[in-house]
Amino acid sequence: xxxxxxxxxxxxxxxxxxxxxxxxxxxxxxxxxxxxxxxxxxxxxxxxxxxxxxxxxxxxxxxxxxxxxxxxxxxxxxxxxxxxxxxxxxxxxxxxxxxxxxxxxxxxxxxxx
Amino acid sequence: xxxxxxxxxxxxxxxxxxxxxxxxxxxxxxxxxxxxxxxxxxxxxxxxxxxxxxxxxxxxxxxxxxxxxxxxxxxxxxxxxxxxxxxxxxxxxxxxxxxxxxxxxxxxxxxxx
Lengths: 113, 113
What we know:
The structure holds 2 protein chains of 2 kinds.
Chain A: E1 3-6, E2 10-14, E3 19-21, E4 23-26, E5 32-38, E6 44-50, E7 56-58, E8 64-68, E9 73-78, E10 87-94, E11 101-103, E12 107-112
Chain B: E1 4-7, E2 10-13, E3 19-25, E4 31-38, E5 42-51, E6 54-57, E7 64-70, E8 73-78, E9 87-94, E10 103-104, E11 108-112
Parallel strand pairs in B: 2-11
Antiparallel strand pairs in B: 1-3, 3-8, 4-5, 4-9, 5-6, 7-8, 9-10, 9-11
């Protein structure tokens, strides 16, 4: 069975500071990992995804994530955040067959001026 | 125009009522999904469909039913609504194959009194 754990429910950070949102996964099959962002009152939007190949994945809005198989982690990072990055972030894993996503609990990133 | 639309966007209903949430997509995708979002729980899969004749239960299908009226339309019904079905409901679609990006609708906020 697959599962995802996001280690922080809320992450407050000041504008222009770096941020890391942590995600650990469990899977007995091939791993396909995603980060989605949900802005207030909106649906989810893909930030980035890891399917195979390079373990460092770059996404939109300056975000990147690193797949670490030995640590079973897929942490999301940004070197300098903006107020507009305030949102909820979801890590998810897919089984690669049904396409269905197993989501973590979500991390609320609050960027303060 | 949005690729994935959901109606209604907000709904208040009473315990025991039957309601239907509708989803339409213009991306031409075969696969469609219904998720519900609860605070602190992330998103959980209710039902998914690979095409009009292929519908599958997700992890929390009890109390829900679905109908795939056409490739572009996928409806979720609550046969007899109960208060713990109060949640934010999302429809999503993907093209299939290797885990591809899921495209989410804007969500329907449902309150069951």
